[in-house]
Design a protein that fits this description.
The complex is a heterodimer of chains A (103) and B (158). Chain A is mainly beta. Chain A contains no helices and 7 strands. With 158 residues, chain B is an alpha+beta fold. In chain B, strand 8 and strand 9 form a beta hairpin. The chains are: A mainly beta (103), B alpha+beta (158).
Chain lengths: 103, 158
Amino acid sequence: MASRIRIRAQLKDDYCEVKALMRHPMETGLRKDQSGAAIPANFIEDVQVVHNDAVVMQAYWGAAVSANPFLGVRFKGGAQGDVVKIIWRDNQGDSGSGETTIR
Amino acid sequence: MGNWDPLGLTRRGFIKASSTLWVAATLPQKIWAATLRPAAAFQTTTLEATFEALGSVPKFSDAILFSTPDIAENGAVVPVKIEVDAAALPGVSKLYVIVEKNPNPVAAVFEVPPSAQPYAETRVKVAQTGKLYAVAEVDGQLFMTEKETKVTLGGCGG
């Protein structure tokens, strides 16, 4: 199955740059479908970027983050080949994760 | 890398079909550190109330570099980038993205551990033309930079 998250981690001068795309509808709960019924809110609330079992960024999101969210962060201390992992969970209890190695 | 196109499945259908699988797949490796979502800040509906929930009205600071487009054709996807000059404003622990005219102004909060750079990039929805704020928290004190973004097509509503 296609992964619900795409990550790239790249070593720069003195930091590691992580970029990720998550697949998620990020529904605000304010929209209505064709019949006029409200579409329930469904958005990612928590995102963690983990390197060597340490959280290098913790993000809390609201419904105002765009659909299929993009995340870009930079942390210090990465080395080539290290695993960088991203985990998210949304307000409906769904979750997802993905990982990549630093290059 | 997976195929980005949902292969003909509707988005909703895809999410439904995959959610159960994904929860099962990710459960054993969950390593959530203790998280404390600033729930109150996410629920405010005005800029004043937002700053109240954060504790104070932030002071303006040149150390925060905030990039947003001057004109956003599509308010549903507005790229934002916050970068704090660590030499001018060291010890940033949190970054906030606040959109003045949104139903709930707080769009995103980033907790910056010492191992991370005070840098965050994402994309947000902007309901209508107005100011966007990048707020940085240092030792409980708040600093901000504002940018005006013109929206030609709103980011909320269908």
